[in-house]
Amino acid sequence: MCHYPHMSEGVIGARPYGGVSAESRTAERRKRMIAAGVEVFGSVGYRAATLAAVCAEAGLAKRYFYESFETMEDLLVAVYDHVLADLRQRVAEGVAEASDGLAVVTGALDGLFAWVEDNPRAGRVHLFEVLGVSPRVDAVYRAATREFADLLVLVLQATEPTIALTEGQQKTLGMAIVGSGLQLAQDWVLGEFHPSRAELVEDARGLLVALATGGA
Fold it and tell me: Which residues bind DNA (predicted)?
């Protein structure tokens, strides 16, 4: 009897296919799973989501989920990272040309609200679905919120150099502005009040700038 060398699935899977490397195929499948996670978590909610629904949305067999993730929570964290990267870009664009504190706050708020309006499923993930899932996800959420707050204060201080704040005051100010923006966005999405995006930004910016500048 002839004995042939054993070729495991991992070895076969590592071969290029159609000119595309195994690593590239794995990365592409991971992107599809994350995109599916945004869609599913942002529509039915994370807690109601199933592995079958995510894989069906991605158009991939269940075994490919475990190629990149061990649990649905792992996917949620990856989805949240993806969502945050997109939001950071939108907010950065909003404040890029800001020349004073009013423009910074206006740009940041409009960037946030425009992003939520244009990306309702991603917005739901950011504003609701990551809250209270687990200590791990809570820590990721808090770290992201602090990062946004710190960056916003840096931009504010660059455009308003006369604002003198201690390190503690900087952190408090940043979290106050970002937290207010997130709460406004949550209420807006939930329909607690119904202004247009422009009206919402206009109403909020003066109050937040007064907070940032001490009423100056």
Answer: 50-69
